[in-house]
Structure formats: C-alpha cells, structure tokens
Design brief:
The structure holds 2 protein chains of 2 kinds.
Chain A (H helix, E strand, L loop, with lengths): L3 E4 L2 E4 L5 E7 L7 E6 L6 E5 L3 E2 L7 E6 L2 E6 L9 E6 L6 E2 L3 E5 L1
Chain B lengths: L2 E4 L3 E3 L5 E8 L8 E6 L6 E6 L6 E3 L7 E6 L4 E6 L8 E8 L10 E4 L3 E5 L2
Parallel strand pairs in B: 2-11
Antiparallel strand pairs in B: 1-3, 3-8, 4-5, 4-9, 5-6, 7-8, 9-10, 9-11
Classes of the chains: A mainly beta, B mainly beta.
C-alpha cells in the first residue's frame, strides 16, 4: 500500500498567515494527489486535484504543487473560514489512501 | 446540482449487520463510480471500495473483502454499503463519494461526498 505522510499534524496559526502543509508518498505517484478540507461534523470537500488543479468554486488563495513523492498545499493568506482539517489522498494505485490529516487551528 | 443523500444514523449490536444507502441526484447515476469511505471518531479517512453503478462491478480494499458488500439499484439511483459481523471498532461515520470524472475505472479523486451516516456499534 502507498503510505501518505502529512506534516505537521497540527498547525497553530493566525489570520493572514501563509500556511503550507506537506504530504509525502512512500513511492512515486506522479501527480495523482487530491487535497480535501474537512470541518467538524461535515463531509470532506475537494480543494485540489491532480496535485495543482483548483476545484471549481474554491478560492484562489488555495494552491497545490509537487510531483513524484512530495506535495504541498498552500493557503496564501489564511481566512477565518479556513480553520479546519486538511487531508491529502493518492489515486495512483489501489488501495486509495489518505494522509493522516493536518488540523489548522487558531494560535 | 449534484447531490448525494445518505440514510440516517444507525445503532447496532456487535455481530449484527448494517446497510447504508446513498441516493444520487443531479447527474447520470450510471456514469460515475461510487466510493465508500469511513472515518472512526476523531480519526482519519479510510477507503473501503467502489462500485460501478453501470455494471455492478466492485473493488474492495483488502481489509473489507468478504466483509463489506457494495450494491446499487439503478431504478432509484441509489448505492448501498452493507457491513456484516460488526464490532465496536466499526463505529464510524460512513461516507459515499462519487468519482471525480467519468471513465477513470475508480482511480480518482472524490467529489462530491454524501453527508455521512454515523454507525454506532454497542452492546
């Protein structure tokens, strides 16, 4: 199975900060990575697919980059609505697997 | 708009089975694979498998092989996930989630997701 390792697991940050979350795959997965945002009590919501493609309707402050084994999700200027948990997911091979999550919380 | 609506919360005893439904609307149900993902309380996301609503073909994560059963009823645009021999650590929120694109053979991102169904296993 492809392991997806996210870091950090928790991020304490402030409104307006630039936030970067990293996801490392245990083997090369080309660009087959998606990123999701999940708020408490809600289903995950797709933000980014194919490593860097922004889902329709997602604010442009979100961006993704990377290929191979290392990927990043960046929020250019954190907004109050962005406090949530973020997950990466690989879809290069079965079983489809997720990272352990990064909780972005208020400092 | 594309929407997935799941059945309500369930409470089951250990050893029982549960069947969760996921009704799709706003798109052609048979054009996109449907996945199931679960999330234990306070934990991360775990992919269970997919069903091709067009053919009924399925693909399970090894952990769920022989234990979970995915099915569908195309007449009512609904997918189902049944889990048998429930244990307390099967307590989780179970989500259905549609493949992001047509024709991916199930290896894809997920959008949209259902609202989730909490299954509680307790004696």
């Amino acid at each position: 199975d492809i392991q997806m390792t996210q870091s950090p697991s928790t991020l304490s940050t402030s409104i307006g900060d630039r936030v970067t979350i990293t996801c490392r795959a245990s083997q090369s997965i080309d660009s087959w990575v998606a990123w999701y945002q999940q708020k408490p009590g809600k289903a995950p919501k797709l933000l980014i697919y194919k490593a860097s493609s922004l889902e329709t309707g997602v604010p442009s402050r979100f961006s993704g980059s990377g290929s191979g084994t290392e990927f990043t999700l960046t929020i250019s200027s954190l907004q109050p609505d962005d406090f949530a948990t973020y997950y990466c997911q690989q879809y290069h091979d079965y079983p489809l697997t997720f990272g352990g999550g990064t909780k972005v919380e208020i400092k | 708009q594309v929407q997935l609506v799941q059945s309500g919360a369930e409470v089951k005893k250990p050893g029982a089975s549960v069947k969760v439904s996921c009704r799709a609307s706003g798109y052609s149900f048979t054009d996109y694979y449907m996945h199931w993902v679960r999330q234990a309380p306070g934990q991360g996301l775990e992919w269970m498998g997919w069903i091709d609503p067009n053919t009924g073909d399925t693909n399970y994560a090894q952990k769920f092989q022989g234990w979970a059963t995915l099915s569908r009823d195309t007449s009512i645009n609904t997918a189902y996930m049944e889990l048998s021999r429930l244990k307390s650590d099967d307590t989780a929120i179970y989500y259905c989630a549609r493949d992001g694109r047509m024709g991916t053979m199930g290896a894809d991102w997920f959008a949209p997701w259902g609202q989730g169904t909490l299954v509680t296993v307790s004696s």
